[in-house]
Amino acid sequence: MATTVDLLHGPYTATVGPRAHVESFVWHTYAVVLAATMLVVGLIWDISWHMSIGRDTFWTPAHLLIQGGGLLAGLSSGAIALNTTFRGSDDAKQSSVRFWGFRAPYGAWVCVLGCGAMLTSAPFDDWWHGAYGLDVRIVSPPHILLGIGMMAIVLGAMLRTLALQNGDEERIRSRAALMFAWSSGLFITILGTLLLEWSDRGYMHLGTFYIAWGISVPIVLVGTTVSGRSRWPAATAALIYMTVLALTSWILMLFPATPKLGPIYRDITHFVPLDFPILLVFPALAIDLTWRRVREWPVLRASAALGIAFMLTLMLVQWPFSSFLMANGRNWFFHTDNFVYWQDIASEHFSFQFYAQADDAPPLIVQFAYSIVAAVIASLVGLLRGRWMTRVRR
Amino acid sequence: MRTLTLVVRCAAALSLAVLLAAHIGSPNVYLSGKAGPYTVDITVRPPDVVPGIAQVFVNVNDTSVSRVVIRPVFWRAGSRGAPPGDDAKAVKGSPGAYAGEVWLMASGNYAIDVTITGKAGAGTLRVPVTALATAQRQLGPFLTVLLAILGTLLLAGAITAVNAAAGESLVPPGEPVAPELRKRARRATIIAIPVLALVVFGGASWWKSEADQYRRTLYRPLKTKTSVAVVNGVPTLTMELAEENARRAFGRPIMPDHGKIAHMFIANADSTFVFAHLHPAMPGRMTFTTPLPALRAGKYRVFTDVVHETGFQRTLVDSITLPAALDSAGEKRLGVDDAWFSDSGTAVTRFVTIVRGHEEGLYVRWAGPDSVVANRTGVLRFGMSDKHGAPAMIEPYMGMSGHAVVMRDDGKVFVHLHPSGTASTASQLALDLRDRGDTSRDGRLRLDMASPAHDMAMLPTPMRDISFPYAFPSPGRYRIWLQVRLHDKVHTTAFDVVVAPESTM
N or C end of chain A, less CB within 10 A? Predict the structure, then answer.
């Protein structure tokens, strides 16, 4: 008999064996889920900071939250690797994965890599700003490297929760399933920020928006529905994405902020929120429901059903919702008064108009067909990913 | 070999970028003036990448000063659209010296307002600064190695992670890894390697396309075609802007600076000291013309300074070759403010005072600095006296007590200085008018709202010396032409200066 520590519930006694050693990694799971949450909230805060205040330093609260999240994930994962490798029993080692001679749970290694990518992006981003100008774009190579690092940490959190969810310990399973949905929601939130440049509400009556979301988001949602053990895994994850994004924005809007960069074309008094979340809970529900019917189908057919269900629901919901956003002008609840300081006053008018189709763009119906194909491909990737995730045990 | 080609290309791009700055090769802005009751010297080092950070150095000769605030004002948004100012910090060990930074987020013309507060109250001096992307940076060797190592580790880690994802991570705790699973993991790894290579290749292509896109935003000079022909018996220079400039840059109208629509400086490219400062007319939106004085045969560099209504200062660069000397027919057509000069220069060496005599009895000498070192901010000072050693009675020349032109012998540095510094007065005026809202409905400046020309207000003043705040941007051989007006005639004196590298002094 020996004592293992669950940080949330205090010490308890369990039989030492591989199963118990999986549980001994539970504190690490909580740590990386917390780290992932810090990263995502920090990211939303940072984008809002750039929209409202503009000027930043290494030490802004949003940056500290992101860096803190990265460090928490990296250091806790490094610690568990060192502990398992040098001080772990044979059973502990047999519950972990070998990586360059060291041993740790698989999710921990993904977190270490994520932390490494984030660290690598720092000098790269610093140089990038010196070479091509200070922060003006979200999508740049160093930012994408940072985003990949952050997504890896959130993926690490998903894998850690999966290992518990897929384990034999009933007591942890349901909580792990919820944490898995939480991590998936965080993953979608990061993905959503990388898609921001194509997610402006002005794009929501064009194919661009649907293709961008179709090619990426089903990978997460289908993966979650396939591997999640809760009743509505994808819908829960989507709801978490919407809640985290909307809630963080609503809270940020309460705090004063004024631009510290010019030219300023608009008076800003409080933090400017990001756009209102995409109503992803509905296409996610469609994925959950469809999966129940198609789980026995061949992979390609199932992917086609899932992709079509996702994209048609997204179109059915988001098209009229974006019309609603456009029609109702400034509205704090739906974040439609989120004008940034550098936005010319004259352009406000255009903020409530959908973008026109480019002259050389294919007809809308063809673009929608592309978006459905994109969603089917993404669903296939998501399905394969989900099947793999159901088998993750370490 | 490819690396060498790349390095050569980068070096060429960098040198080209330096060459193309608005004040050729000398982007720093120097301004001396009054901020309310305080006399201040300001140096602004603009960023060479936009958005970027400009460094601001302020020297104020008053110990009662308690605060120096610097604030960037973009011409289009004006003071109302400017962020709150930041305090410049006192430089330790240098009383009266302050340093700070401002972020310039847009390309174009800015005013940096420097507000001094002290016992005598508060006052502001406005410094026009142009924010332009002129440099293309490359990764340094340390960062290249660091990123290569980190990148390799990440890639190796990703490959190992794929192996583990398809292998050991799927094994229930306590169970051994089956040989079949190992084989599958190995297969997944073999597939992952080219996929990851593709990701890296895609990332590199993206980086290259971003760099190419950035390169397109670099400031480029307007293309001009300059020719000399005899028109109605008068040797005439005509400079035409290429049609492609019409929309790209010359869409914004230009405004007079010191009452002239353009200031053209013609300097010989060989070792003689022929120089002319002329003021061409602008008969068309894309054409400048001026009669020429009796220039010798030879190759000349032509620099033309214009100021747009945005306050943006632009120097057009071209060259002409005169196969034979010009006659003097053009001199009668030139204006009273046009001046030309042809003589050997006066070499400036340290500790030697050189006196240059003019027929009216003006003696000009180099009065400092004793040692001329690159990048050391100071003043170029010239002593002036009449033949009896009394102060010279200097008359205003286009609103200034004097003008100086600095050119490196290879033509890659060129700047037009005033006693107040490098800033154009028209540029300051444009920013002031726009800020006050003195613009017409279509955004044109209401120049009739400007204050009367300085010449009207200035009378001949006895002057012992004249100085120009400046720092030579790089070592090399420079020529300086000083121009002052005496007895209603513009006198030009040339000096040859060798600027030492920073580290040798």
Answer: N
